[in-house]
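Sample 1 of the test manifest.
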Amino acid sequence: MYVKGVNATTLDDVRAASNTSKSQLYNHFPDKEELVRAVVAARAAQVLERERGNLQRLKSFRGLVRWRDALVQRNALQNGAYGCALGSLAGELADQDDQARATLAESFVEWEGLLAAGLRRMQESGVLKPDADPEKLATGLMAALQGGYLLAETAHDIKPMEIALDMALDHVKSFLTA
Amino acid sequence: MYVKGVNATTLDDVRAASNTSKSQLYNHFPDKEELVRAVVAARAAQVLERERGNLQRLKSFRGLVRWRDALVQRNALQNGAYGCALGSLAGELADQDDQARATLAESFVEWEGLLAAGLRRMQESGVLKPDADPEKLATGLMAALQGGYLLAETAHDIKPMEIALDMALDHVKSFLTA
DNA sequence: CGCCGCATGGACTACATGGTCCCGCTCGGC
DNA sequence: GCCGAGCGGGACCATGTAGTCCATGCGGCG
C-alpha cells in the first residue's frame, strides 16, 4: 500500500504479499476499510517507535542535525519515491476515511510531541532561548519534513527535502543561546 | 477528483459533473489515464495562473506576508480539507503515473520560480541581503506550504499551516537587510 | 422541403475486485 | 487409532467500472 497507494492495492495484492488466503483476511478484518485502518495504525506505531528511538535522547542541536541526516539518508535510498510512510497515507486517506484521518492526526501530534520534548529539554538546559516555543518549532520541523518529502517524491530528488529541513533547522538555530 | 481523490473518482462521476456522455469523454480522451493527465495539466495551469497574479509584482516582505495570508485564508474556507490542488494530486499520482509526476514536478519548479523571481527582485533592490539564495528560499517556502497543507488537511485545522508558513517567512526575514 | 451524414447519448459488455462459502485437512480428544 | 470439530484454502458470486457500439436526432446541403 505504501508503494502502490492504498486505493490501487487490491485484496489479491494483500493476499499475495502476506502469503495467506481470502478467508484468513476476512477472519481478521471485516472488510477492506478496516484492513486499511489496521495498516495505518501499524505504520503509525512503527514510525513512532523508530522516532522514539531517534528522539528520546535529543538534547542538543547536533542531535537535531543527526535526526535530519538519518531521515534524508533513509529517503535517499529510494530517491524520494513513495514519500513519508505516514504522510502519503495521510494525503490519500484524509478526505476519504475520517477514522484513518483521526489516527494519522494523532500520530503527527505525537511525532511532533517527541520533537517538542527534545526541544524543551534543550530549553531547560539553556541551549535554547526561553522565548522559543518548542511546540511551534516542532510543528514547523514536521511541516518542513512533510513538505520536503512531497517535493522530493514529485521531483525524484531529495534536494528539496534537504533544503526544507535545513531551513527548519536554521529557524531552530535562530533560537539557540549565543 | 480534487475532493474525492483521483482513484476514487469514476468516469460516471466525471460524466455527471461535466453533463456529458461517455462517448464525448472518449472522443476527447483515449482513456482515463489521459483524462487524469489533462486534469493535472489544467489544474497546474490554473494554480500557476493564480500564483502568477499574486507573485509577479512581489517585491517586498509585506508582499510575501500578503501571499501567505491569501493562501491561508483560501484554505481556511474549507477547514484545510482537500489540501493543495497540486500537492494532493502529487501525493496520489507521483508513484503511479510517471508522466503526471513529471508535469507536477515542472509545475512546482515553476511555482518556486515565481517566488524566487520575487525574492531576486527584493535582493536587487537591496531589501534582501546579497548572500541570500532566492532559489533555496523559494524551495523552503514551497515545502513549508505543502507540509502545512498536509498537516492542516490531516488535522482539519489550519493552525499548522500558519505556523509552517510563519517559520518560512521568519527564515526569509533573517535575510532582510537591517 | 427532403435526404444524407455525423455527432451524441446512453444502453451494453467484459472484466477486475471486494466479499462469501464450502470442501478438505489437520489436530485434539477419547 | 478413529472420529469430530474447527480452521484454512481457494473456487465462486455479485457488483461496480472502464471502455464499446448502435439507434436517434439534428444540421447542412441539394
